[in-house]
Amino acid sequence: MAAAGHVDSGVVRGAHFPAGEGAAGLAIRTREPVMTPDLPGDARVILAPALREVFARSAWQATLAVPLLVQDRAIGALVVKDRTGRRFDDEDARLLQAFAGQAALALENARVFQETERGRARAQAAAVDSAERFASLVRGLTAIVWEGDAATWQTLFISEAAEDILGYPLIRWYTEPDFWLAHVHPDDRERFRGMRPTTRTDDHELEYRMIAADGRVVWFSDLVHAVRSADGRVRRLHGVMVDITETKRAKEAARVLGDLGRALGHAPDAGPVSRQVAESVRRLFGASAAALYRADRETGAMALIAVAYEAGVSFEWNAELPAGAGAIGLAARERRAVVSRDVVTDPRIVFPPEARARAERGGVRSALAVPLLVKGQVVGALIVGEGAGRTFTDREVILAEAFASQAAFALT
After folding, report:
1. Which of 36, 159, 237, 326 would bridge with 145, disulfide CB 3.0–4.6 Å?
2. In this structure, are strands 73-82 and 377-386 parallel, antiparallel, or unpaired?
């Protein structure tokens, strides 16, 4: 447990509580907010005798708790306490749920960051380790291990992870001149042109982007070790390229979510914020398009209210869809995120004839759709779209759900 503010003397920061106990345990168990003006007196709440005695002496018994959810998996709870007798309301719960959504995303991103840092530490150790240990690590790393000529930058060795991460056949690294530089992101490419032949003799780290075979932008932290010959000159370069895309995206997502939160507090209507949500999601996902739909409270039909495109890209969107239609309709019906590599051929997804024809002609094919929920009611949907074939990751689903939480406020 981590705590801030007034904390009862019998409750210790860093303490651990059995599963299901307290308001936090109830919120985690039910996946719903828990509001009570008198925690010890609430029959729904389970408390160990010692803890019940502590709370019984406290003047801070009014409690509001919400679960921290990652794809409907509870990873903790966020709890606010006040003086006995205060009655938290639905608006308090909505506000705390918004914070909880961002807190869950931050905790998940922290876990991803720690995994990346551990991988980086292993990679740095490998660069100065024996050939036998280095070869063993190459086979097990989820990072790209490479060797290159210091003068020409010609690839001399590239590990199989290069094909897994970027999607290009390994043979192209060896046979195509300047393959690496040609696939560095255009905005990063120029700063490398003047660095050849290599003049640095120390070990160093570079950050840059590459374009994957499927068009994704992949961020790398490249740990480079200069290998000298007997005459002291740098002849070869050894390196380990660690994929840090998720870490970069997490930092950008935190910034954008903060901007959206401030925009929600000042926008007189939903239009500008809806467009900001669509464009922010599209840009963060590196996607071709993203859109927001509003749900009709009576019929459940969806109406398009905001759309964002990558430059030079255009899809045919369905301005209106009946309840249950399309990926957004499935997400709304099931009240959870829906991922589809091709919405036209996906048997779970249904369309009216005209809407299906539009999708087949030039609509979104790969999609990530997330419902916008307020107090358990669907108020709209967010969709991220591509041409057929893209697969969205679990972390991308978590990120989309965080944006959906913000967008739901814009529509209420």
Report:
1. 159
2. unpaired
